[in-house]
Amino acid sequence: MAKVTMPQLGESVAEGTIGKWLKQPGDHVAKYEPLLEVITDKVNAEVPSPFEGILKEILAQEGATIPNNAEIAIIETAGEASGDAPAAEAAPAVAAAPASTAAPDEALAAPESKPSAAPGGSDESNPAAERPAATAAAPAAAPAAAPGATTIPAAQSTAAVATAPAVGDADARMTPAVRRILREHGLSPEQISGTGGGGRITRGDVSAVVESMRTNGSTPVPVMSTGTASAPPAPAAGPAPAATPSIQFPDGADDVLVPMTLMRKGIAAQMTRALAVPHAYVHMEVDATNLVRARERSRKEYQAREGISLSYVPFVIKAAVAALRQFPTFNAHWTEPGLLAKRRVHMGVAVAVDDGLLVPVVRDVDLLSISGLNRAIADVAARARAGKLKLDDYGGSTFTIDNTGWFGSNLTMPIINVPEVAILTMEAITKRAVVRETPDGDVIAIRPIMNVVLAIDHRANDGAQAAAFLKVIKSSLEAVGPETPVY
User: What CATH number does the domain located at 263-478 have?
Assistant: First the structure.
């Protein structure tokens, strides 16, 4: 019997809450198949099964808060079950997990709530030498499927693989777990259209293709594929304001208690920790004339080519990366022994959902183009709102950006996403009367102006460094021009 333990979901997270068991005792579980949802702070994260076999016992019930590494379930592994089960020519079971079809939205949300840091998954390519032949025979003996489990007959699976079209990128990025799933089903990366950031292949992408093969359907085309016909255009307008709970007052009652959800409890705990940090703020105005022109120049062509709207956010992230390179003490985490500087730049992006706020992470943003950033942000934002975030989609961010201006705000005082040491907000771009110097003297002109606000942990940096940091962002955004590459 193999024991499943509560994973550590963050550097400073000591426990997690069982949100929902996706399998029940007696169900067959494939290796890396989602087993349960765990809630930490504000995020529902699917935890994959580390073993293949039959789920024998659940040791932690839904709603229970469990410390890291505590036992939560017992699985009878495939090796143990094969001794009693009759031989069968069947491939391991896999649950259907279709790719999300929700249209991505470019807008980010308010900053007042951030998840604790969590380690992210690494991306590795899938060497061709590691791919098994599509016609390889299925194992001679496979565990007997539990009632309700979905199995893929060997003949059907291999035939479908042989005819699956090459719709993806042979060099697409993926985690080691996804790479192993591809090998198990005799698939290659070019047979999968990746829906992750930058065309990355996710576990859901593979599961959708496998399920399509099982039902003799066609290979699904995901919303976030690299083509131009698969994704419906995102709406030009931003998302509707986050829904607020409806409150019903009983007859004769002057007040009523609104119970806290697990997400709100997580937000409360994180904000209490964050506000123990000494915050300081710096605000500057950015003349966004060139930025607006650059986006408008590329917007229609980009929408037609990529199927999503081009946001201002990637431009601001690029400017922030330039500032972080000059002032590396802002790309860091605060620890009691001192400032833990980070080499890689992982950007947290705040996203509004109906019952709270999430901060998924776009990793290695300094390596992405404006287009790559735009697609990655749209992807994680859409999956955050659809409740489809994975463990490697959040936590471990080194700096956070927030587009509060999408909702019309002009000045926000954000709360730092601790243990980070700074957060940047971009406010609404509004036309204002400004004074400009000309050879003939000062004139009053109408310009699109955007406020940017930087909140810092005053233990890590001082106001002088913060102002210099923000000045680099301002200068970078005002220097955007026709030569600024989108791709």
Answer: 3.30.559.10
